[in-house]
Amino acid sequence: MDANRKELKQFIRPHLTEERFQHTVRVTDTAHHLADIFGGDAHKIEVAGMLHDYAKYRPYEEMRRWIEGSVDVPKDLLNYSPVLWHGPVGVKMLEKEWGALDKDVQSAIASHTTGNAIMSIYDKLIFLADYIEPGRDFPGVQEARRLAEVDLDKACLFALDNTIRYLMSKQQTVYPGTFHAYNLLQKKQEEENG
After folding, report:
1. Long-range CB contacts (< 8 A, 24+ apart) of 9-13?
2. Cα(68)–Cα(103) distance, rounded to whole angstroms?
3. Is CATH 1.10.287.110 what the domain over 5-137 is classified as, yes or no?
4. Backbone angles phi, psi at 19, to 5 degrees
5. Residues in Cβ contact with 37 at an 8 Å cutoff, skipping those fewer than 6 apart
6. Whole-model pTM above 0.90?
7. Going by C-beta distance under 8 Å and a sequence separation of 6 or more, which residues neighbour residue 146?
8. Domain segments of the chain: what residues?
């Protein structure tokens, strides 16, 4: 895991479209910017940012087999959109095809699309960077970017809320980890506000 950006780029590029590769670089840069404000180890952020979409373009059937065959990938993922699978499955694929990853990096990659019940600083940085990177353009992204400059938890809470509302407006299922992340951060905000 001691790779530098050049090595990470060389490794990841063949697995992504050019557009997704550029997104990956922007996510990593955005996560570094957020870490400058809120803290976090630069190397862990670099690795998690550069590798977060490793499995994005793997066939769904291949990812299904990884979920079914792995003891530590949640089986309930199979009940939700395959778009969510590439994070947790990517961690398992990376362990085999890249090598051992730091636990913080694993968690950040696994939860970058859904959040999770107990989000570490790295989970939040990669989740939020993926949400607000400069190539994103959707209703609410400017507010998320504004919040990201001042309060990491509020920005993540806003992103989770916006995501849940969007999915519900489209009558789509919401992964339980997303609700857990929302509830945890909402409760924290309530406690801070007295």
Report:
1. 9/50, 11/51, 11/98, 12/50, 12/51, 12/53, 12/54
2. 22
3. no
4. -60, -45
5. 149, 152
6. yes
7. none
8. 5-137
